[in-house]
Amino acid sequence: MKDDEIKKHELKYQDLDHVDKGIVEKSVKGGYSRRDILKLMVATGVTMAAAENMLYSGNVAIAATPKKGGSVRMANTIHGPDDQTDPMLFTSGADYGRGRAVYNGLVQHANDLSPQPELATSFEPNSDATEWTFKLRKGVEWHDGTKFTADDVVWSMNRHLGEDSTSVIKSVLATVKEWKKLGSHEVKAIMHSPNSDLPTLLGMFQNKVIKDGTTGDWIGTGPFTMESFEPGVKSVHKRNENYWREGANLDACVITAITDPVARVNALVAGDIQIMSNVDPKSFRQVESAEGVTLLSIPAASQLGICILKNTKPGENDDFVKGMQYIQDRERVVKRILKGKGSLGNDTPISASHGADWCSELAQREFDPDKAKFHFKKSGYSGADLFVAPVTAGIEDICLLAQANCAKIGFKLNLKKVPNDGYWGAVWMKEPLNVVSWNMRPTANSQLALQFGPGSSWNDTFWNNDRMGELLTLSLAEIDPAKRHAHFCEMQTLIHEGSGMVIPAFSNINDGIANNVMNMPTVPLGQCGAMEWPEFIWLA
Amino acid sequence: MVEENTSKEEEVIAKLDAFAELPDAPPKRRMKLTWVGKLSVAVVVFWLVIIAIGPSIAPFHEMEMEGDDSFLDAYSGEYGTFYLGTDYIGRDTFSRILFGARNTIGISLLATLLAYLMGITLGILAAVKGGWIDMGISRVNDAILALPTIMLGLIVIAAFGSSIPILIGTAAVIYATSVFRIARALGQDIMVQDFVEVAQARGEGVWWIIKSEVLPNAAMPLATDFGLRLVFVVLFISSLSFLGLGVQPPASDWGSMVRENLAGLTYGSYAAIWPAIAIASFTIAVNLIVDDISAKSGGSLAKKMV
Amino acid sequence: MMKQMVLQRIAIGFVTLMVVSVIVFVMTSWLPGDVASIILGQAATPETLAALRAQLGTDQPLIYQYFGWLSNMATGDLGISKAGGATISSLIESRIGNTMVMAGLVALISIPISISLGLWAAMHPGTWLDRLVTFCTLSLISVPEFFIATILVLILAVELHWLPSTAYLTGDESFLELLKAVAMPLITLVIVVSAQMIRMTRAGILNVMSSPYIEMAILKGVPRRRIILRHAFFNAIGPIVNVIALNLAYLVSGVVIVETIFAYPGMAKLMIDAVQTRDLPLVQATAMIFCAVYVVLIILADVASILSNPRLRQPK
Questions:
Q1: Residue A425 contacts C, CB cutoff 8 Å
Q2: So what's the ipTM on this one?
Q3: How far is the CA of C136 from the CAs of A455, B39, B284, B296, C198, in angstroms?
Q4: Among A294, A167, A344, A279, which Cα is nearest to A527's?
Q5: Pairing with B283, which of A328, A351, A428, B153 sits 20 to 30 Å away (CA)?
């Protein structure tokens, strides 16, 4: 490699001569682990960052010439008799993956989170974003051979609206009044109030377009058809040869789940499955050191949080909240519990992954037992009960660490461990101290509005701040980048100082794949590239 | 047992010995253990001592994450004080085993004893009284026995929280059902024996029959089952940890320690193996003691026959 | 006489079924949350919850739901899973075969091993070999199943690549392919179940050995072989059959950890899933099946015990 000609940190795949390109491609294809290649590159004088970058570009470059054929088995974390067939009720990774394979949305998220047209060819708001017009793709067919039209879209979208809708995302779409058909391939969304984020919201897992008059029933327009579906066992999919896009590369795929985290990793390492969602931090070392598999760690703003309810004891006392925030040993959480695959939290839901909307100038809250002791003392509390369920990897360990550190300053933090099932209904937003996990939302505004919007259904710390409400509206309409950033910074400062939220860390999205799986999407909104994988991956 | 060498004498004494163990003879309490039995007693005593003093001799508290990294090797750490290495979040495995003895042994012993108390009382009551009482208790008992233990545990603990009294109570009720079955069957068996029929004909009361005839005869078979039942309770608690329930953190329990450190096995960490050995050492010791005792009664006879 | 006894046991079994349905119903009502709140999870709002409950019919009083379920059962209709909308018969159909295959294979291998080893150990109590068998079986019983299962996976699947680490069934495999697919859970269960059965068989026979009529036989000077074959073994059949029955019941309903680790779609995991999603009709259906299996096995065990114990054969 010609180090002298190119600055090390700027080294890109494109800059390599064809021989070096060949080496990268060959090593990626040849089943070396990502680590081996990185080691090799670093040994030859490429910096780590450049090597990572190059490897990623290498993957992309190879992806330009995908190979057809083969099948993969993909394992999620949970499944059961509650595996859904109706996209409106999708709640698990297995549901999302099946939805992605069988259906399409109007809009999908790109790796950079921008909304891309899918079954819509274009979308335009009116001047004040109170109406959105969607032009629809022509010549698309359902798996049963019938034609896709505006009627299907109107039916699918209106199911999320109205009093008696059972849609999981009913509240998210509360600003939409109704959907209307304008022509055979044109529809309009009429809003209650302006929403410039509508296309982004339409990229959500539950917003799949289903056939007019059905509840899904696995007749979609998507890249795969449903061959067999056994709830809690598996679903088998075949490539849709009649797909409107170029189509899937795989001949078939199987979507299942292996609930035990250790067994899931073992299945990947043993070669029984090719993709697994959610590698537990305990198993990072195993996946990284095993032959033929890669740990795919995508930085994301997946929150690991402790909610302290502000409308009741002890959270209504600001000093108590401060005590809980200062006792978090954030460095250790990231380094030891998340094994480095995460980033420091600053008690706001916005992280560097949100780009320009992240308030980087807000001082990082440090681990400070003395301050914590001071605030706990001032609050008058000498102990509290924290309800913990294993809602996401690492959250229990964060609480254990906080408990140990509290004990050292004479504060008694009791952990009440409860099972996952029933947690969201019986504990979250009910017990004064509980744990929460939030997947990253595509925009900082939607993230903040969801968790801290005054009156939001999911304001899970019950912290209602009028200024926060104003800023949410202002920032949505602001186009000047500096002013917009100032708005977002003010909001993050308000949350950092006043809310009952403790966010010690953000976790990366950590999935495991076999080395011959190419072109894995990296959309940071959920596991496995927010389940965008079925259409795009191919096997080397 | 017998020192003399003349075969005739030995035979006579053996017969007398056997006779001495007949139901109506006064119970003979001559506890002579083999060296295996003695070793087992030593192991059990060791763990009982650990229950008492473990927390005070442990180098760390069970919740302390003093280790700089997870799955550290034995004798690592600044002063080599992690005698058995650290667990998945850097806690000292040795200290957690010392602390965990209290929960694992305490819960399982108490639950098993309670299960025996309930099971034997109800079982013998059902056997002796018969009729509707027997019918009622037996149907509820069968119903509980027919359902998987892990499901019963899951429901009770998810509904009422996993405090230690709830854990003990749940395990006790679940395992009392099997004890009930054994006790009832033994009771019925004994109730049809000649000596009981004779006693009944003599006009003895129910309590007299239970006290003098049924209990002494049922004691040994029930004792042999005790060791196994104890193992099942330990397993039950650890299988709850598999479902994310069980003992409340940060308290350590050997079963959950195995569970939470399983991932370390692949890179040569013994953090899951030490607690497994602890469980095995305790349960095997208890069972070997039970074996020794039962070998004294049933076994000695069996030995002579073969 | 025997026929009457069996009929009576079946009637009793039916009562047990009803008791189980009530117990299960009452217990699941203790659990926090209901099926609607589980489906909606973190996304639940009061309005969506109300709408979904109305749609699923779970907004009715519990007692009403119970009798609705009972009357459906009477017509042979198992109903529809509240959690996912599939028919319960289809959910069970795909798994009951798997469970039966696994239980059958395990029983086929472990019963002969256990009875012979257990018998043998009971006849040589206190010897070195008995101690060895005792030590091995106890070690295998006392460590949690997930520990044994994980170690087996690491050795046989991850290191040696001899067997698949999970039991993936396509539904159209040959018998040999099926055997290979289920080998790992099969081995694990054979180890766990055999260890328990050896131990319990040994204890059962030792109990018989210590019973008064054997002692009496010895005193009467009956030859040893006769004692073992005519008295001890004959009388031990009852306890041994009982042990087998309980272990078979366990194989059908209790192997949730093995099913989870090897992703083997069986009945035990279905029931735990049903409980965790508060899917009442499905919980009831699986509980009924488990209970029926248990009742049948226990009736068989009872018949065997009674046949082998003349005293119990005579009604009092």
A1: yes
A2: 0.86
A3: 62, 17, 9, 22, 10
A4: A279
A5: B153
CB contacts < 8 A, A to C, total 153
- Tell me if B263 and A337 make a contact (CB, 8 A cut-off): no
For A:364-423, CB contacts with B below 8 A are: 388-390, 396-397, 399-401, 403-404, 407, 415-422
Cross-chain CB nearest to C295 (options B146, B284, B306):
B146
Handedness of CA A492, A498, A504, A510 (dihedral sign): negative
State the pLDDT at residue A8.
37
Q: What is the C-alpha separation between C157 and C159, in angstroms, rounded?
A: 6
SS3 label, residue A189: strand
Q: Output b/e per residue, A121-142; b: 16+ Cβ within 10 A.
A: eebebeeebbbbbbbbbeebeb
Distance between C104 CA and the closest CA of chain B, angstroms: 18
Residue ranges in A103-234 assigned as alpha helix (H): 150-158, 198-201
Closest CA to A223 of A92, A98, A75, A112: A98
Contact C161 A270 (CB under 8 A): yes
Q: Express each pLDDT in A456-484 by its tens digit.
A: 888 899 999 999 989 988 887 777 889 88
Identity of the residue in A73, A81, A258 whose CB atom sits nearest the CB atom of C282: A81
Q: 3-state DSSP call for residue B64? A: coil
Chain A residues near residue C153 by CB distance under 8 angstroms: 263, 266, 270
Q: Partners for C (CB, 8 Å, 3+ pairs)?
A: A, B
Using alpha carbons, select from A106, A119, A100 the residue that is nearest to residue A253.
A100
Q: For residues C103 and C185, give the distance between their C-alpha atoms in angstroms, rounded to a whole number.
A: 11
Give C155's DSSP letter. I
- Å between C196 CA and nearest CA of chain A: 25
A334 close to C (CB below 8 A):
no
DSSP summary character for residue B72: P
pLDDT score recorded for residue B297: 55
- Tell me, yes or no, if C131 comes closer than 8 A to chain B by beta carbon: yes
Residues 9-38, chain B, touching A (beta carbon < 8 A) = none
What's the burial of B245, exposed, middle or buried (CB within 10 Å: 0-12/13-18/19+)?
buried
Cβ count near B264 (within 10 Å): 24
Of B36, B143, B220, the CB nearest to C210: B220
Query: How far apart are alpha carbons A314 and A100 in whole angstroms?
Result: 43
pLDDT at residue A408, rounded to an integer = 92
Q: Are strands A186-191 and A208-209 parallel, antiparallel or unpaired?
A: unpaired
- Over residues A247-262, the mean pLDDT reads 92
How far apart are the C-alpha atoms of A128 and A148, rounded to whole Å?
30
Contact between B159 and C30 using a beta-carbon 8 Å cutoff:
yes
Please give the interface size between A and B, counted as residue pairs whose CB atoms are below 8 Å apart: 68
The mean pLDDT value of chain A amounts to 86
Kindly state whether A510 is in contact with chain B, defined as any CB-CB distance less than 8 angstroms: no
Residue C56, both tokens: 């699923």
Tell me the nearest-neighbour CA distance from B111 into chain A, angstroms: 21
Q: Which of C195, C193, C194, C169 is nearest to C262 (CA)?
A: C169
Q: Please, what is the angle between helix B273-294 and helix B93-129, to 10°?
A: 40
Q: Give, in order, the Cα–Cα distances in Å from C185 to each of A210, C147, C190, C200, C263.
A: 40, 13, 8, 22, 9
Evaluate if pTM is beyond 0.90: no
Q: Which residue of A has its CA nearest to B261?
A: A282
- Residue B25 in contact with residue B16, Cβ under 8 Å? no
Whether A475 contacts A491, CB under 8 Å: yes
Residue B135 has pLDDT above 50, yes or no: yes
Cα separation of C253 and C269, whole Å? 9
pLDDT in tens, C129-160: 888 888 888 888 888 889 999 999 999 999 89
